[in-house]
Structure formats: structure tokens, C-alpha cells
Predict the 3D structure of the following.
Amino acid sequence: MKLSLGEIAKKIDATFLGDKSIEINSISSKTNVNEDQRAIVFISKYDFDEGTISKNIVLLLNQSLYEEFKEKEKLNFLICKNPKLSFAILTNLFKESISSPQYQNLHPNLNKLFLGNNVSIGANFKYGSNCIIEDNVSIGDNVTIENNVIIHQRTVIGNNVTIRSGTFIGSEGFGNVQFNDNSWCHITHLGNVILKNNIDIGYNCCIDRATLDSTIINSGVIIDNLVHIAHNVIIGENTAIAAKVGIAGSCNIGKRNMIGGMVGIVDHISTADDVFISATSSVINDIKEPGVYSGIMPISKHSAWKRIAFWITKLDKIAKQFKFKK
């Protein structure tokens, strides 16, 4: 799909500055720009090296960020009041149509399997009943998917992977931006999920595809039942995740982490390698060092909770100051 910059500027209420002859065929993240792309890149913080930006790239940003560029005449810009909302609208313009998967019988066991277009499947593939594999999926050797599993578009699965019944891989992420009238504009997720080797995923889990790049589950990860992993998350090697864990978008979980049941991790969190998080903990800050972590607090107004959390961290020092005995 190609759109002229004039068409795009009208649809997102933006001002265009630069080469009007460019036709856009994709949206890209700032960390994964292909030199051959004619893409729009949404930026919320100016951290580009201007000299490395291709002339085929159009930067979507607000006026104040635009002013930070030194050589504006050499680059292409879409300038708007609410770049995040404009980005959300753009993702819907570039949403791909998916074919209806067709019934296949790869094994004589009569289990139903529905395959989309351009699906690659390796040796010793086993599947349960009523499974769906959408377009452009790649599956390695020794992969087993149990009953009612859905593998969404562009998912890449390595070798020796087991996915248990009722699990969805590569589902649409939960990203939304509000219009001025407080209604919601959904961000269409155009990325994928990559499952590497030797992974075991439990029952009724959901792993969302990335907004533009990849949600990545690295080799050796084991995941219990009823786990949700949101868009853009990266899970480090040999991490174990217990039941009912929720990991919000754009988190980067280290290697060999052990995450207890019902842990909630807010978006954009990073954890070090060799971290153990106790069951039902709420993770709201980065964990920068290995170790065992726990954090359970009753819900309260956020302003009150911040004051309580501040003093809890000071209790040990206060006790020592007053020479309290344990």
C-alpha cells in the first residue's frame, strides 16, 4: 500500500515540510528503519543523529520537537499537535488484510487445522483440534500446538516449542489514544511475535504482537497458565513465569527471572538478570540488580500511596536513628 504525503497530511491534520514526491509504504520504529523503506517514523523524543536519517524517511512529531532539528531543510516532517493520535490513525491506514484460513488435514487423525497463506511448517509438527494458523507464519521443527490454539499473522516460532490449549500467539495489542472528545482511537499493531527455541507455554495464555517491531520470547522460557504478555515485551532466556502474571507493554525482562503468580508489571519496566519476584507483587519501577523482590500494598489514592511508599523505604533508617531494637 502506498499513500502520498498530501493524502496522509489531510487524514491526520498535519503540516508537511519536505519532498512532496515521496510516497509512503510503511510505518517504522526509530530503532528499526530500513534504508530502502519509504516510511513514517513517529518520535516523541529527539535522539536521532540527523546525519544518519534517510531522505526517504518522514518524521512525525510536534512543533517543539521540530524546532530542535538543526538542518531542517535536509529532512522531511509531518508536524501535528498530537503526534501520538496521528500515529494511531496512521496504523489503521496501513492495516493489512488477512485471508480466511482454509481447512487442512496434515495428519490422518482428522483434527481440524486451518491454514492461511504463505505458512512454513517444519518437521514433526503436531497439532490438536480446531487450530488456526494465519498468513505468513513460520514454524520450526518439533513444534506442538494443542487444541484451539491460534497463531496470528507473521508469527515466527523456533524449534522444540509447545503451546497448550486455548493460547493465542500474536494477538492484537491493547494500545489506544483518546480523541479530543474522549473517545478512543485504537492503534493497529503491525509487528509480530517471535518465539525462539525450547519454549513451553501453558493453557489460555495471550502474547500480543508488537506495535511495529517484535514481541520476543527468548529461548528456554517457560510460561504457566493464564499469562498475558503485552505488545513490544522482551522476555530473557530461561525465565519462568507463573500463572496469572500480567506484563504490560514495552517491558524488558532479564534472563533467568522467576516471576511468581499474579505478579503485575507496569509498562516500560526493565529487570536485571537473575531476579526473583514474589507472588502477587506489583512492579512499578525498574529492577536494576539481581535478587529477591516483594511488594504488596493495598490500593489507595495515588498521592497518598506515594507518601506511604516513601516512608516505608525510610523505616530502617528511622529505626536505627532512634535505636529501636528488633
Summary: The mean pLDDT is 88. Residues 280 and 303 are 22 Å apart (CA to CA).
